[in-house]
Design goal:
By secondary structure, the chain is an alpha/beta fold. The chain folds into 2 domains: 152 residues, Rossmann fold, CATH 3.40.50.1100; 214 residues, Rossmann fold. Helix content is 45%, strand content 18%. It is built from 16 helices and 14 strands. The strands form 4 sheets. It has a 6-stranded mixed β-sheet, sandwiched between helices. Strands 7-6-5-8 form a 4-stranded parallel β-sheet, with helices on both faces. A two-stranded antiparallel ribbon has the order 1-2. Helix 6 runs parallel beside helix 8, helix 10 packs across helix 11 and helix 14 crosses helix 15. The mean pLDDT is 96.
């Protein structure tokens, strides 16, 4: 694989990363997605569009976000050094605003009046509601009832920002069902609205667009790490649900001698229905308009999934991650609920940073990696802050008195 040419070759014109991706949709939705693809490709190289996006990132989002050396945590674990890319300091509290502002800018270019999306942990919903308020657009967010109860602070933020929340009450009432509901709504409104998917998944062109908008994570961290240390990290890790923060974290390093590790949610363990580790335990399949790895039940349908982190409980994964897995360029590991909660409390107590439960999976893996290596450095993406998870964590795990070295 020639990674120096990678972004010219993938995805191809039909939206495929090798055998994964594509656009498997009803005729009306296929027409709408092709319209989005054409609009995006017509402006993504435009200096005017790029300049406006850069201005928004600098003046509104607060980019670049910093790279931070976890000195105390590193010392507790040995001689390895853990660094964080602080996407939790991005405006609205997570990496999601990176692609939401880009998608909303595209919607304005296309003359659309409304943004429609799903959300799991609520971070994408908050980011899209923020973008809609910025551009003066309507916003419709679909969210499973389980996640609405679990992520009450983010639901409140979305409502304050002016978004309409559509509760989803069928199935497991979580992220997969929220995507189903959002797509159904979009099918009725595609002439005046744009679907803004929350990750590097779904039909083409969404995996490509979200990757491009999230590329700033790795682009910034690569330059920052070189300036801080004079070399690149030995490894970069990030949590993987659908794949947006991890795709953005890894893409800039593809041609570098750096290990890339995607961290999937093992939940309660490897038993059926107790995790959401699609790349580790899944197989190729199709859902929500694209081909990728997928967790299936006995009938070949999407399997029930679970993770303590609402943003990770999805039964498939972005097609580019599936491609990277087959190429062997990215290694995929798992972290369970208990390890993630332990990392949540330890990062909070020893560094003063409360991470999102999604991000805690990456932090937990970085801690494990540091214990296994006598020297070196690992950069983990802290994809979001943990304000949204505090009530849930405290109710179920207390204040972390038992999670100390």
């Amino acid at each position: 694989m020639n990674y120096k040419r990678y972004f010219r070759d993938y995805p191809d014109q039909n939206g495929f990363f090798g055998p994964y991706g594509g656009m498997e949709l009803p005729a009306d939705l296929e027409k709408a997605c092709k319209e989005i693809d054409q609009a995006y490709r017509s402006i993504c190289q435009s200096s005017r569009f790029i300049s406006e996006l850069r201005r928004i990132r600098k003046e509104f989002q607060g980019r670049p976000t910093p790279v931070y050396h976890c000195n105390r945590l590193s010392e507790k674990l040995g001689n390895c050094h853990i660094y964080l890319k602080r996407e939790d300091l991005n405006h609205s509290g997570a990496h999601k605003l990176n692609h939401c502002m880009g998608e909303a800018l595209l919607a304005s270019y296309m003359g659309k009046e409304k943004l429609i999306a799903e959300t799991g942990a609520g971070q994408h919903g908050v980011a899209l509601a923020t973008a809609a308020a910025y551009f003066g657009l309507k916003c419709e967010i679909h969210m499973g009832e389980v996640d609405i109860a679990k992520q009450a602070p983010n639901v409140a933020r979305m409502k304050v920002l002016g978004a309409e929340i559509v509760p989803v009450s069928h199935g497991l009432k979580t992220l997969k069902e929220a995507v189903d509901s959002a797509f159904a709504s979009y099918a009725k409104q595609y002439k005046t609205a744009i679907y803004c998917i929350g990750s590097t998944l779904g039909p083409h062109p969404f995996p490509m667009m979200v990757r491009d908008f999230q590329y700033c994570i790795g682009e910034e961290s690569r330059q920052q790490f070189l300036e801080m240390t004079g070399h690149l990290p030995d490894a970069v890790c990030a949590c993987v649900g659908g794949g947006s923060n991890s795709t953005g974290s890894f893409a800039a390093y593809l041609a570098d001698p750096v290990d890339l590790i995607g961290v999937e949610p093992l939940g309660h363990g490897p038993a059926f229905g107790q995790h959401a580790a699609s790349l580790t335990y899944g197989e190729p399949g199709s859902m929500h308009g694209f081909k990728s790895y997928m967790l299936k039940d006995d009938h070949g349908e999407p399997a029930p999934v679970y993770s303590i982190a609402s943003g990770l409980d999805y039964p498939s994964v972005g097609p580019e991650h599936a491609f990277w897995k087959d190429l062997g360029r990215v290694q995929y590991e798992t972290i369970g609920d208990e390890e993630a909660v332990d990392a949540f409390f330890k990062l909070s107590r020893y560094e003063g940073i409360i991470p999102a439960l999604e991000s805690s999976h990456a932090v937990a893996y970085a801690m494990k990696w540091a214990k296994q290596h006598p020297y070196g450095s690992i950069l983990a993406t802290c994809s979001g802050r943990g304000d949204k998870d505090l009530d849930y964590v405290i109710e179920n795990y207390g204040f972390g008195e038992d999670h100390q070295f």
